[in-house]
Automatic annotation (TrEMBL):
Organism: Ectothiorhodospira marina
Protein name: TRAP transporter solute receptor, TAXI family
SUPFAM superfamilies the UniProt entry points to: Periplasmic binding protein-like II (SSF53850)
Signal peptide bounds: 1-26
Keyword terms of this UniProt record: Signal
Length: 332
């Protein structure tokens, strides 16, 4: 019902859009794009599921035709949103920091300062899956093995090779989409798949349902070393997240944020913030990782300017936005 009514022309469409978002004036709506793209990552990963989910909610609430785009992941999304090739995207704070400072491997020297932060998504834990019959059940077992690390520009492809190097492991890294690489593990083309995504990682659940697997990550000594060397923090994945993993599993993780190009209208971004953050129950229906999609988790961004529409939302919620994270174009 709501989906159809927001397609009506004129003010009637705006009144219909209030169901999920908030009231917007006709003048504000006139500045909105008729359609917009959200950069996600490869199919089979959490980014694509989560991104398509919040894009659908925003489409429903605002009438803007939102679509989820398959991309190389967080690093590429920083570049594409900065360049205006995507209106919105999602990124992990490690690649985002490198992009903000012009140190991305996919775009050396390009400071992606046209990107603005919107809302916190969830933490991205680092995990590995291998077939049980391979005998691989620890990161040290990956020495000399063929290991998929997801698409180039993704969080996994940036950090797992660095982890392997720090640990002195000779790993033959392979790049590709999550769904493709988990299939290659099943077919014996890859020995393991080391990934990073909100849990449960759909590609891991997929292979777990089809063959006996080992799902594991770094040990405590390795975790301490990675926390010291990289912008990651220790996290514990609860037992039962995957059907065959009964015990809690410690690993490292990075936070993820939704992002927008700085030229997106303030009123549209404000409505996106309300749609996503004021409807956490619906976001939880998209993916369980959305339990961390909460306004107060905006504190996990400490370097990227927030979009003016996001600043407005946080201030209305009584959440102080640090002065150094308010963008130059903010007029509030």
């Amino acid at each position: 019902m709501l989906k159809s009514c927001i397609r009506w022309a004129g003010v009637a469409a705006l009144s219909c859009a209030v169901a999920l978002g908030g009231a917007v004036s006709a003048d504000e709506h006139a500045n909105w794009p008729s359609s917009a793209k959200v950069g996600t990552a490869s199919q089979g990963g959490t980014y694509f599921i989560y991104g398509a989910g919040w894009a659908g909610l925003v489409d429903e609430a605002t009438g803007v035709n939102m679509s989820a785009e398959v991309t190389g992941g967080p690093a590429q999304n920083m570049v594409l949103v900065h360049q205006g090739q995507l209106e919105f995207g999602m990124t992990t704070m490690g690649p985002a920091f490198e992009g903000w400072n012009g140190k991305l491997q996919v775009a050396r020297g390009l400071e992606t300062r046209n990107v603005r932060a919107m809302f916190p998504m969830y933490q991205t834990p680092m995990q590995v899956v291998a077939l049980q019959r391979s005998g691989i059940d620890s990161v040290s077992d990956l020495d000399g093995k063929r290991v998929g690390v997801g698409p180039r520009g993704g969080t996994a492809s940036m950090f797992w090779p660095r982890f392997f190097e720090d640990l002195g492991l000779d790993v033959r890294v392979r790049f590709g989409g999550a769904a493709d690489q988990v299939g290659q593990v099943q077919d014996g083309i890859l020995d393991a798949f080391a990934f990073a995504a909100g849990v449960p990682i759909s590609a891991f659940s997929q292979i777990e349902a089809q063959q006996p697997v080992n799902i594991f990550s770094l040990n405590e000594e390795e975790i301490a070393q990675m926390v010291e060397n990289h912008p990651v923090s220790r996290i514990v994945i609860p037992g039962g997240t995957y059907r065959t993993v009964e015990e809690d599993q410690a690993t490292v993780a990075l936070w993820n944020f939704a992002i927008a190009n700085k030229d997106m209208p303030e009123s549209l971004v404000y409505e996106i913030m309300k749609t996503v953050l004021d409807n956490n129950d619906r976001m939880m229906n998209v993916h369980r990782s959305a339990r961390e999609t909460l306004p107060e988790n905006m504190e996990h961004n400490n370097f990227m300017w927030f979009h003016p529409g996001a600043v407005r939302y946080y201030q209305e919620k009584g959440i102080e936005v640090p002065e150094d994270l308010i963008p130059p174009e903010y007029e509030g």
